Structures are given as structure tokens and as C-alpha cells.
Amino acid sequence: MKLRRVITVSFKHIRSTQYLFILFSLLLSLYSAAFTAYSREPLVLTRNHEIVKIDSSVAESWDPATGKTYPLKTKYFTNTDHNKSYWYTFKLSNPYNKNKNWYVVSYNFTINEIDLFENNPEDSMVTIHRDTINLSNRFINHKQPIFNIELKAHQTKQFYIRLKNESSFYYEFAVYTPENFASSFFNEYLSFGLFYGFMAFVLIYNIFYYSILKEKVILFYCLFILAQIIHMLYRDGTGLFLTPSLTAHSEIIKNIARGTVSIFMLLYTYHYFKSSNNRFIYTCIKIIIVLRLCYAVFMLEDTTLNTFHFELFTLLFCTGFSIYSYKKDNPDTIYMVIGISLLTCSYIIYYLSVVSLSSLSGFGFFVLYYGIALESIFMTLALAERFKRIKLENISTLQMNNELEQIIQKRTSQIEEKNKLLEIKSEELNLFLYSASHDLKGPLKTIEGLCNLGIKDEQADQKKLFELIKKKLHNLESNISDLNSVTKLQNQQSRFSEIHFETLHKQISERFLGNNSITKNQIRFKNHLEKPFISDAFSIKTIYQNIFENALKYRDTTRDLILDIVIEEYADEIKITFTDNGLGIPEAILPKIFNMFYRGNYESKDDTGLGLYIVKKAIIKIGGTIDVSSTEGLGTTFEIILPRISLLNQGSTSSR
């Protein structure tokens, strides 16, 4: 700060000779006014271990033009006109018997021009102490303006302070002994170091969280913490050590930081409590963000109290919104509510000390620091609680998804099985329809041919023709009967009742033995069942009848037929064995005998090829199995295993 700026801004345009003349006149005015200014009681520096503040109780406003003093209108020094210098005066007295030094310290660290004049009437000397906004020019590398003064034993001095600043504010000064200064500001810098170290740890912790989860709410919280750190660095002046070349712009940096603090706090709160139920509140938040952003842009150099009002409003809004969300539908956000509430309470104390009490006291200042530190702890816990809740929700959702996936896979597997079954059924149906139409059309065509032959050939043997027609009609009836059996087995629900094998055997024997040269003695039937057997009567009859009929149909005509039918008792099942001494089945065709419309040899050319297919289908329907062994020329054995069914599980079996 150049010498020409000591008195007023008008000195900028005054030549050096004029400046020296005015300065000499000013010094004379100071000297002449010293005796009138001494009328106010001096501040006696007796309390070595306390900080002595310079306020309206010991200081007065001073007019350099007239040399008159006036009582202060406020407790501390103020300036209302940016282009004007303000003068204040006070007296300090050394009550000790030796010379002593004290430091006059300003609590404001960004004052454009500040000069301290001391006047000693005893030797008529005027000394000028000057401080600049540049930290490197101070005799102690300290963030605040500091003046070293010396008082001789029992000496009282008059001091004058000239202030000129681009911003309107109030200014506090205090007197320290060198020892008190060192201890007080050492503790202050130590507290600042702990605070910023803790905030840096919280920032790094949440940046790490963000790198893992990539959530907007964490990003906005990290930016909120970073803006808080920058804001507090330039609020307390510590940031001047980091950017000494930007000291003149510290107010702009501070205003930008405090604006971003409000914006990122609103964005963080918005995304933390984001819900579709609060559209009106979210609209208000967006409006506040836009207004705060506009204020920060257009009022970069603002030093009025309006910014304090805006900050307090933002905090109160976020606190009210968090409490509202907590009570309504977010009971697990208690840490967030506590964190914002602590920050708001600490800021209210700071706000009252600055706005209402017009004081830059350490109490309000450090309460704000403690509030920010506690807020950081609880807001970090709030994020952790939120992540815990989200994780539990994700685990629950994942579990539900897995269960749904398993159900879908199971259903898909069932659908695939049913589709395959449908494909098989479709193929069987196509084959069934094709073969059925062919087998039905065959006898009909034969009958039609025989009829045509009888009409055209009058010499034909009519009796023989009718016998042939009768035979084909019998084949046609057999085909229709078998097709009907297949349809019933596929579509008819099982009807369970007690099976009387003796009665069933008698009915089937009487039906088939009457038209064959086979006696009852050739059919040997043995029933070893001791307990009633319950099953589907239609399926049992179909099985019994088809195998019985095949034994008669494919007997060896060179020897007498022997058919043994044995029914045996087991714990949970019965076994029915059919053993004959007929033609037997070649080994090559054994695997095919249960296929639909399969005819294995010449003797079965007039058959439908459905008999054993129907047997297998009926056995499967009632939960049984069938096994066949045969030796060509010796005979065939069918072993059928059928489960016992109680009355309690008939429904489950019938659904097969």
C-alpha cells in the first residue's frame, strides 16, 4: 500500500509536493488535537493474560479536519461509504515500571487500507504503522492485520486508526501481549488444522464411497463438503496462506464458495429424500437453487448481511423439509435430520453473533465449526444408513428376483415339457389320424369291392362274399373299438373301484373261448390276493383283455395253447403275469411292440396295431410298469406291476 493512500482516495490524484504539505498539516492537526482527545480515559493494559478489546467504551470517532472526537454510534468501528476513510481514536496506558510491547490485532483479515498512528505528546513524535492486504508484507506472517506498539513505563499514548475498505462492515480490534498472541493463535491454528483434517477425511471417505456406488446423492454431498471447506478457509482467513496471490480476491472466492454450499446442500437434500410424493417441495427447492445461483453470480462482491439471511433461510428450509420427510415416509433418515438440525442450530448462534450482536467473537465462530463437524459425522452416518437400507432392499429385491427366476425357470421347464409332450401328442395324433383313416378305409374299400363284385358277377358265390364282408366288418368293429379305447384312456378321468379279478377273468374268458377251439383247462388262472385291490376298472379291463386276446390270437397251432395268469401280492403293489407257449416275438422287434399301429409279423396284418399300445398307455395312466420277455417258437411272458391305491390318494393318482 503506497503512502499516498494514507488519508483519502482523493490523494490518488495529488502531486507529491501537495501530498507532503497535506501530510505535514495532518500531523500538526494530530498533535494539536491530542490534548482534546486525551479527555477520554485511557485503556490501562493491566490484564496480561486476557485479550483486551477496543470498542465504544474506550474508543471514539475522530474528524481529522477539525480534530474533534465523537462517541461511536455502534459498539465497534464501521464504514458505510466505500470511497471514504474513517478515523477512530483511543488511548492505551502502560501501568508497569518497565517498557512493554503489545500487539494491536484486527479480527478482519481483508481490509484494503488500514493505518495506525500513535501520538506521544511528551516528545511530539508521530509514528505511522501501516498494514497491507498482502500477508508477506506483515512483520508477522499472520492472516489478520497486526501492529506492534511499545509503551514506556507508565506511559499513555493516543492512537488513531484510519480504515478504508471496498466493503461495508464492522471492524473489531483487540490488544494482545506477545505471549497471549502466540498462545491464542497457536490454539486457533491447531483447532483449524484439526477441523480441516477431519473435513478432508470425511471428503476422502465419501469420494471413495462415490467411486464404488456412483450415486448422485454422494456426489452432491462430496461437492457440499468441498464447498464448505473452501468457504470456511476464506471465512476464517486460513485460505490466504494457500493462495497468497489471490488475497485481494478472497471476498469473491468466499462468496462463490458460500453460494455453492447452499446450492449443493439443497441438491443433496433433494436427492436424499427424493420421492414422487413431494413434487411441490421439490419445485420449491429448484426455485431456491435458481435464485441462489443468480444471487451468487450477480453479487460476487457482496459484503452485506443479505448473504447471511439467505444462508439462514436455506438451512431452515432444508431442516424443515428433512423433518417433514422423516415424519411422513422416511423413518430411517434420523441421522440426516440430526445432522441438518445441528448445522442449523450452530449457524443460528453464529448468525446472532454477527447480525444481531455485531460481533466477530470466537464463541459464535467456533460454534459454527463444531456444528459443521458434527453435521459431517451425522450426514455421513445418514448416507451409511441409507446405503444399508438400499442394500437390504436390493437383497430383498434380488431374493425376490431369484425366487421369481426360479419360478419362471420352473414354469418355463414345465411349459417346455408340455410343449414337447404336445409335440409328441401332436405327432401321435397325426399318426393316429392317418393310420386310423387308413385302417378304417381299408375294410370299407374291401367291402365296397366285394359288393361291386356281387353286383356285376352274377355267378359269384354269394355266401362266400357275405362271409368276407362279415369278416371285414368284424375288423372294422375291432378298429373302432380300439380307437375308442385310446380316446377313453387319453381323455377320461380315472374312476377307482375295487377290482374283482375272478369276475373279470370269467367275463373275458367266456367272450373269447366260445369262438375258439380252446378249452377252459388250457387257461390256468391263479389269484393270490388277500386284500382288496382298488384301481381304475376301465384301465384294468383294457390291459387284461388285450393281453388275453393276443395270447389266443398268436398261439402256435401245432400244439395246444397253455396260458398261465398269476396275480401275486406284494407290500404296496401287485404283479400280474401272463405266460403263454405261443409263437413268441422275434428279439429284433421286441422294443417296437408297444408303438402305435405297429404290426410285427404276417399274422398281425389284419390287426389294428393298437392292442399293446393301449396296454402300455393304460398301465402308465394308473402308475404301473410292464416288462416283456419272449423267445421265438417257445412263447411270451408279460409281467405287469400295478401300485396299490388307498382311498386317500385316489385324486392325486387319477390326475396322472
From TrEMBL:
<dbReference type="InterPro" id="IPR003594">
    <property type="entry name" value="HATPase_dom"/>
</dbReference>
<keyword id="KW-0547">Nucleotide-binding</keyword>
<dbReference type="Pfam" id="PF00512">
    <property type="entry name" value="HisKA"/>
</dbReference>
<dbReference type="GO" id="GO:0000156">
    <property type="term" value="F:phosphorelay response regulator activity"/>
</dbReference>
<keyword id="KW-0597">Phosphoprotein</keyword>
<dbReference type="GO" id="GO:0005524">
    <property type="term" value="F:ATP binding"/>
</dbReference>
<protein>
    <recommendedName>
        <fullName>histidine kinase</fullName>
        <ecNumber>2.7.13.3</ecNumber>
    </recommendedName>
</protein>
<keyword id="KW-0812">Transmembrane</keyword>
<dbReference type="InterPro" id="IPR036097">
    <property type="entry name" value="HisK_dim/P_sf"/>
</dbReference>
<dbReference type="InterPro" id="IPR036890">
    <property type="entry name" value="HATPase_C_sf"/>
</dbReference>
<feature type="transmembrane region" description="Helical">
    <location>
        <begin position="333"/>
        <end position="352"/>
    </location>
</feature>
<dbReference type="Pfam" id="PF02518">
    <property type="entry name" value="HATPase_c"/>
</dbReference>
<dbReference type="GO" id="GO:0030295">
    <property type="term" value="F:protein kinase activator activity"/>
</dbReference>
<dbReference type="GO" id="GO:0007234">
    <property type="term" value="P:osmosensory signaling via phosphorelay pathway"/>
</dbReference>
<dbReference type="InterPro" id="IPR011623">
    <property type="entry name" value="7TMR_DISM_rcpt_extracell_dom1"/>
</dbReference>
<feature type="transmembrane region" description="Helical">
    <location>
        <begin position="189"/>
        <end position="210"/>
    </location>
</feature>
<feature type="transmembrane region" description="Helical">
    <location>
        <begin position="255"/>
        <end position="273"/>
    </location>
</feature>
<dbReference type="Pfam" id="PF07695">
    <property type="entry name" value="7TMR-DISM_7TM"/>
</dbReference>
<keyword id="KW-0067">ATP-binding</keyword>
<keyword id="KW-0418">Kinase</keyword>
<dbReference type="InterPro" id="IPR003661">
    <property type="entry name" value="HisK_dim/P_dom"/>
</dbReference>
<dbReference type="InterPro" id="IPR004358">
    <property type="entry name" value="Sig_transdc_His_kin-like_C"/>
</dbReference>
<feature type="transmembrane region" description="Helical">
    <location>
        <begin position="364"/>
        <end position="384"/>
    </location>
</feature>
<keyword id="KW-0808">Transferase</keyword>
<dbReference type="Pfam" id="PF07696">
    <property type="entry name" value="7TMR-DISMED2"/>
</dbReference>
<feature type="transmembrane region" description="Helical">
    <location>
        <begin position="217"/>
        <end position="235"/>
    </location>
</feature>
<feature type="transmembrane region" description="Helical">
    <location>
        <begin position="280"/>
        <end position="300"/>
    </location>
</feature>
<keyword id="KW-1133">Transmembrane helix</keyword>
<keyword id="KW-0902">Two-component regulatory system</keyword>
<dbReference type="InterPro" id="IPR005467">
    <property type="entry name" value="His_kinase_dom"/>
</dbReference>
<feature type="domain" description="Histidine kinase">
    <location>
        <begin position="435"/>
        <end position="646"/>
    </location>
</feature>
<dbReference type="InterPro" id="IPR011622">
    <property type="entry name" value="7TMR_DISM_rcpt_extracell_dom2"/>
</dbReference>
<dbReference type="InterPro" id="IPR050351">
    <property type="entry name" value="BphY/WalK/GraS-like"/>
</dbReference>
<dbReference type="GO" id="GO:0000155">
    <property type="term" value="F:phosphorelay sensor kinase activity"/>
</dbReference>
<keyword id="KW-0472">Membrane</keyword>
